[in-house]
Every structure is written in structure tokens, then in C-alpha cells.
Amino acid sequence: MKHTFKVFLTGAICMAACWMLVSCKNSQNSNDGHEHVEHSHEGHIHGPDEHHHDHDHSGHSHDAHAGNDGAPDEIILSAESAAAAGVKTETIMPGKFRGVLEVSGRIMPAPGNESTVVANVPGVVSFAAPLVEGSRVNEGSPMFTISSSNLQDGDPVQRARIAYETARKEYERAAKLVEDNIVSRQEYEAAKGRYETARLTYEALAADGSGNGTAIKSPVSGYVESCLVKEGDYVSVGTPLATVLSGSSMYLKADVSERYLSRLPGVKAANFRLSYSEKVFSTTGLDGRLLGYGRSTDETNAYIPVTFAINATDDILAGAYAQIWLLSEERDGVISLPVEAITEEQGHNFVYIQLDPTCYKKQEVTLGATDGNRYEILSGLNGGETVVTHGAIHVKLASASNAIPAHSHSH
Description:
Elements: H1 2-35, E1 39-41, E2 44-46, E3 74-76, H2 79-84, E4 88-91, E5 95-109, E6 114-118, E7 123-127, E8 136-137, E9 142-147, H3 156-179, H4 185-205, E10 214-217, E11 222-227, E12 234-235, E13 240-245, E14 249-257, E15 269-274, E16 280-282, E17 289-293, E18 303-311, E19 321-334, E20 336-338, E21 343-345, E22 348-356, E23 359-370, E24 374-379, E25 386-390, H5 392-399
Antiparallel strand pairs: 1-2, 3-23, 4-25, 5-14, 5-19, 6-13, 7-9, 7-12, 8-11, 9-10, 11-13, 14-18, 15-16, 15-19, 17-18, 20-24, 21-22, 22-23, 23-24
Helix pairs in contact: 3-4
């Protein structure tokens, strides 16, 4: 009886073990079958509850990448921020661009516009008013006073005054006697001539009525270019005291290497930027004209001068050095951009193309010649692109931001 019970128990245990083994295998097969229900579409895995969607984007599109930020080569800048920063765009097309020869030069006073103030009497100099380079003076305004009171020959003003008073009395006496025919008309006219001469001499030598010496007045209206004496200096007749720059014209003189001689006949105008300013001037805008270019060089100067006459303005200083772009004939079919549109990074030049009102793309370009206002674009643009022409630095700063807002749309 006991033996029969042991056999029965052993058989029950074996049957239970077999049942558990079969159950595990069925469970594994069931899980494998669940995975095989999934489908693969172009690298995207869809679970059994997912639905496959076709995505068709033509033109410019933005999908969410890297945490819903824009695509790596896209820059997001809101229209409001762009407007506040002064960002402006231009749809570029091939157009005209003039040949350019970049040189250096200088602003020079035009001949006849520089007047020298000289002493007309000997004596000690004093300034009629504070006088420094750049001071504004008017024609006939006193610049210096020269006192000769301590000289051996005496004060010329006093001598001129005495001669004037004597001539005036003689003239007034002759004017009364000529009416009674006591003095001839000829004697009267001679007295009148001596009086007028003495009067002019006295008025020319007199200061401002104070009797402090001889007034030296500015012969023209303009600006003091240089003051050549100091307060208290002794001067003789003809000594230069100062130079005054006047007139409405100046010269722009460009120094061109002799190897560019063959290009000079085509030069018609120029743009230039002065050493103290970022503003680019144009000879055309200043009613300038080409006067000519040199035909020879010498041992001391191997450059050929090219000279333009331009209108003088308050922000152009005579003697200032200039960067000059000589302009020749126009070339057609050239893509060009304003200088402000170009940004530079590690020796490479870039512009920013606007893809839509809030999205921009950085594009590397190769630069050609510049006329001071625009750059010729040799490669990187084909025409028809909308490019940032003003405020490109703000777009560049936006591209460096580590927090670009999510941006997703399609066209």
C-alpha cells in the first residue's frame, strides 16, 4: 500500500513540472508574437496601437529637433525683436558695380583758399581774442594787436593819428576858402587827397579805438589753420602771424602706385573715409570733379597723384589722411551687399539669409572688391535671396544664444 502511494506521488510531481515548463514556453512565444506585430516604416517603429502618418513638406520646413529647438543651422529671432534692433533685409539681384582701386591719400586746401596774416608794423604782439587752431574768424575781425609804443621811432599809430589830424584841418580850411576863391580848386583837391590818404592810413593802423596799438585783422572769413606767433613776441613788418583757411573747396589727393598707371584713365570718381570718422564720403555727393593725375614720379615719391576738387564741409578737415576707393567703369551682373551685411568669424565671412519673418540662416560668402559702401560677392549667393543688410550683428548674437525658443511650421 505504501509503495503504491509513493509511485502515485512521484507521478504527480512529474506531471506538475511538465505543465509549468509548457506554460513558460507558451508565455515566451506569446511575447515574441507581440513584438512581431510591430511594423517598420523608413526607420520609424510603430507599435501595434500606433498609426503610420506620411509627412510631406515642400519648400522650407522645421521639425522638432534636439528638445524642440530649431534645426542646427537655423536662427530664430522674433519679428518684434528684429524691428527693435533695426534689422533690415534686401532681396538681392545681380546689378551694376564699379571697378575699384583702393589707395590712400589726404585732404589738401585748395590753392587760393589759404591766406597768411602778416604784421604791417613792427612791435610786440598780443592777441585780440583767444586764438587757437580751428578758431572761427570773420573777414575784418581783429586777430592781433601790435604795440610799438616803446620803439625808438615811436608808435606808428600815434604818428598816423597826428598826420591824420593835420591833414583834416588843412582840408577843412581849404574847403571854406575855395568858396571865396581865396584857394584855388587845384589846391583844394590836393588838400582833400592828403586828408583821405592820412585817414585811411590811420584807420588801417588803429586798433579798435582803444589806442592800444595796431590792429591786425583777418583778410577773409574762415578757420585758423595755424598760429605762428606767441603772446609777447616781437615781430617786424611782413612777419607771418597766422594762416586762415577759407573758401568753399578742398582737394582730395590720392597716391597711386605707378604699377596701376594703366587703370587711371578709367577713373571718374572716388569714395573716401577719413582717419577720424567711419562715414564714407563721395566726390559725386560733394559736387567733386577729377582735376587730373600726375604724369611722372621722382626719387622721393614713387606714387602718382590723382586729384579731385570737392566742396568743403565742416566735417572734412584739411590735412586729414583718408582711405580712398577710386571708381572706374561699371560692370553689370554683379551681386553686391552693403558693408554692414558682412560678419566675420575666424577669418571667414558670413551673411544671414531670411527664410521667413522669424527664421534666418547663416551663409558663408567669398568677398571681392569694395567701394567703401558695398562688397562684391564672388560666391555663396546666387541672387533672389533675402539677405539681412542692416543689423546683421544682432542676428549673429541671436545665433550664439543657448536658449532658442521652439519653432515648428511648414510651408
